Amino acid sequence: MKKKGEKLQGLIFSLPALIILFIFTLLPILYSFYLSFNKVNLVGDISYNFVGLGNYIKALRDPRVIVAIQNTLKYVIIVVPAQTLLALLLAYILNSGIKFQTGFRTLLFLPTLTSSSALTMIFMFLFSVNGPINKMLVGVGILNQPVGFLYDSKTVLYAIIIMNVWSTVPMFMTIYLAGLQDIPKTMYEAAEIDGANAFQRLVKITVPQLVPVTNYIVMVGLASTFQLFDQTYIVSGGSGGPNNATLTLSLIIYQYAFKTFGTIGYASAIAVVLTLFIFILTMILRKFSNENVTGEGLD
Amino acid sequence: MKKVHLSKVILYVILIVYAVITVYPFLWALFASIKPYSEIVGSGLKLLPHNPTLENFKYIFTQDPLFPKWVINSIVIAVVGTVLNVIFNSMCGYALARLHFPGRKTLFMIVMICIMVPAQILLIPNYLIMKQLGLLDSYAALIIPSAINFSYIFMMRQFFISFPTEIEEAAELDGLSRLMIFFRIVIPMARASVGTQAIFVFLAFWNDFMKPLLYVTSQEKYTLTLGLQSFQSQHATQWNYIMAAAIVTIIPIVIMYILLNKYFMKGMKIGGDK
Known about the structure:
The complex is a heterodimer. Helix content of chain A is about 70%, strand content about 5%. By secondary structure, chain A is an all-alpha fold. The C terminus of chain A is likely disordered. Chain B folds into 2 domains: about 55 residues, no CATH class; about 210 residues, MetI-like (MetI-like fold, Orthogonal Bundle), CATH 1.10.3720. The model of chain B has no long low-confidence stretch (mean pLDDT about 90). Chain B is mostly helical.
């Protein structure tokens, strides 16, 4: 009697989630694959022309895709190590019995709260020709005259890199801090009795104990950096310029899907490859990740 | 003894320098928003305004025809989206934790996999699906596909697994139906988890840029994040207005952060936002 009631209740309770899950997650995943094997025409009624692996092969030969891959990789390779190391360093300092720990932590959280859109606006202003960064650099004599950092293909990606490291470090620092606080104090006490100095304790205890947290942080870092979109879109007004310097994979997917006609299937193929790549990377790193850190088994 | 003291000083210096680097852009934006344009461009490195003014805020709220609409759009979408998420995620988490129904294990497995699926792959097909459903360029396009969140379904499941059954059993004896028990007794007792979830979901809706960009085309339906960007392309280098607009998008979140700080910190411990 009770069991039978539960069947119905279970269905009722999960129904809203089930409907959305089906229409806006499972179906789209399959649809994405289908699109990627077709040339899709959106004018009038949607029509599909099966092209097999054509879109995938075309992507490999597309010089703009190659540029987008290069830009994205450059971004990932600089940002992920930089944000991870900085976050660890700051968390370590915060955890070293410093006063005002909560105050610092609260203050440093500010960028995590702010939208990419507002942050990018603020940095476009800071980096602008009349902005404080130019004024400072000219003031101390590093630059002879103001530079339009965001209009120069040599500097624009680095400006975005600085901004994004700045904005993501505090969140990862907070996660590291929680990880540091979970390391048993007795381990440090024992090491101290054995005569280990601060540096040895860091290398021999802290870093190894934090491996699962680091795995998690690298995993999240990779997944988000590979999808860089908002900042490059806003800085370049969606063009990926100047001179393709801010063209990332997500941006090129957007352009092919929504800005040029007849290339939505092509865009889907690039999206499928990017997604599979991130998904597999995440799965591998998750294998090494501590369950508690990823949220499993908590509460 | 003296050496220890010195190393502490170095640590404080590093932290203070980093805190300044973090806060400085916000202060610069905040003060720029109350400066007249001429002062922003001409005043060198002076942070504080010479003639503070609320003119910029007055302008964006009264002279700009769209800005007030964007504020309202963002509020409506974030609030409705958050309420739906809290209800749906909690219900599904509860079903996964407590109710024995066919397909429960499969559903749980799918939820766990979906947590890892990058949003990237959903954008194009969802655009086409919403086009077919006639949902494009509406609040619904921004709310409905995001009305559930797999991470929080999972979080709620974990919470309900360790939730005492006795209370519900007692309520059941009093003749309350399962749904009534859930909304009147269980949810209020799950306040902390619900609060954490609500805050991070709200933040994600409020700050989202990509979905509004793809799914909304008429300017009067823009959210603040998207509006800010179009505002910038219209006003080019009128940083006084742009900074005022940016500050308007940040302030509500900062107030929320100050008032509900413990929920934020709890959320970060659980693994942060996705």
